[in-house]
Every structure is written in structure tokens, then in C-alpha cells.
Amino acid sequence: MTDVLGRKPPRSRARLWVATILLLVYAGFVSLVTLWPDPSDLEFGSISDRVLNVLYRFGVPEWFGFDELEFTANIGMFVPLGFFLGLALPRRAWWLALFLLPGYSGFIEFTQATALESRVSSLLDVFANTSGGYIGLLLAMTMRAMIYARDRRVIARAIWERDAEIVRARQHPLPQQSVPQQPVTRREPDPATRLFEQPSQQRWQDPRDAPTERLPF
């Protein structure tokens, strides 16, 4: 069967490589932001104040303060992480992300509580991070399901069109083109043939009666 079909085409690894690289880069960024020893070096306070001022200008109510912004930021920070993880995992192993995302968030909070004195850990942050990761995972799996369904439709239509062409070719075969017969031209024998291949009834009895032919040499 392999010889008939030819060499099996290789699988595409573009999605796996791109998603894995983006996942590692973004996970490193999240680790840097959340595990930096002194959060004041990152100027979170000034950035939060600027973001809140912009939100208030767009009509966000005053009760939405720093704690609510931090909770929302924790959700949004893990959305890309869950999305890249959903793209990197095999389709049948997507459920591993259900444990990896809260495990990674729990590792961050545990490290903040045990090794970083200037950090404050909270189970609420684990809940926010996990929620954001699950949102990103849902987006990734939805996109992969849509692409998978589209690919199946494209392949099915290509097979149908191929089979339709085969059926049409069998029902309406092309007329065979007749090759015109070339007229057979009789070539005159050369002088040597005329001299030595005379019919038996025309051969001479006496060599002196033989016809005279001028040979071309």
C-alpha cells in the first residue's frame, strides 16, 4: 500500500513550534513580573494610577479602585498564557491545561509567600489567574475546533471533486482521434536488385542474354 500511495507526507509542526516558543517567552515574562523581588522597581503604582485615571475618564465608576484593577489585571495576564498553552498541547491532551494553569499560579503565589518578603500572596490571585488561563484555553480550543472543521470540509470537497471528475470521465469518454494513414509509396528497386533478383521465369539461360545495367559505382 505504501508503494502504491507513495511516501507519506510529513506532519506540519509549525503550530507546535510557534505556540511553544510564544508560551515559553510569555511564561518567562509572567515569572519576571510576578517574582521580581521588589515590585516598586517595576513602577506598578504609577502605572495603576494612570490606568485608573483613563478608566475614570471613560465613565468607569469610582468604586473601581486599585484592588479591582489588580484582580482584573491578574485575569488578563493569564489569558495569553492559557491561549498559548492550548495551542501547544496536543488536541487529545488539552485537559492537562486544567491542572497546569492553576499549578503554575499556585507556584507563583507559594514562592511569593515563602521567598519574597516584599510580595503579598493571596488565594484570590490564584483564582483570578486560573480564571484568565481558562478563558485563554477556551479561546484556543474553540479556534482549533473551527480550523479542524474547516480543514475537514476542504478535504471532503477536494475528494468529492476528484471523484466527480472520474465519474464524468467514465460516462463521457473522449473520442479517440484517428491517425491518418500515410500513403504507402513504392520505391523503385536499385539497379543491383533489378539485376540479381529477377523472377525465375525471367532469368536468362545464357549469360550473354543477361540485360545490361549500369551500376552506380
Q: Helix- and strand-based class?
A: mainly alpha
Largest sheet: none
- Helix content percent band: 55-70%
Low-confidence stretches: none
State the distance separating the first and last CA atoms: 66 Å
Domain VanZ-like: 24-143
InterPro entries: VanZ-like
Region (Disordered): 171-217
Transmembrane segments: 16-36, 71-89, 96-115, 127-147
How would you sum up this structure in a few lines?
The protein is mostly helical and 217 residues long.
Summarize the topology:
Elements: H1 2-5, H2 14-34, H3 44-57, H4 66-88, H5 97-115, H6 123-171, H7 191-196
Helix pairs in contact: 2-4, 4-6, 5-6
Biased composition (Low complexity): 172-183
Biased composition (Basic and acidic residues): 205-217
Protein name: VanZ family protein
Summary tags:
mainly alpha, single chain, 217 residues, 0% strand, transmembrane helix, 63% helix, 7 helices
Care to describe what's here?
It comes from Microbacterium betulae. This is VanZ family protein. Residues 205-217 have a biased composition (Basic and acidic residues). Residues 171-217 are annotated as: Disordered. The protein has 7 helices and no strands. The longest helix has 49 residues, at 123-171. The protein has a domain at 11-141. With 217 residues, it is mostly helical. The mean pLDDT is 81. It is elongated, with a radius of gyration of 43 Å.
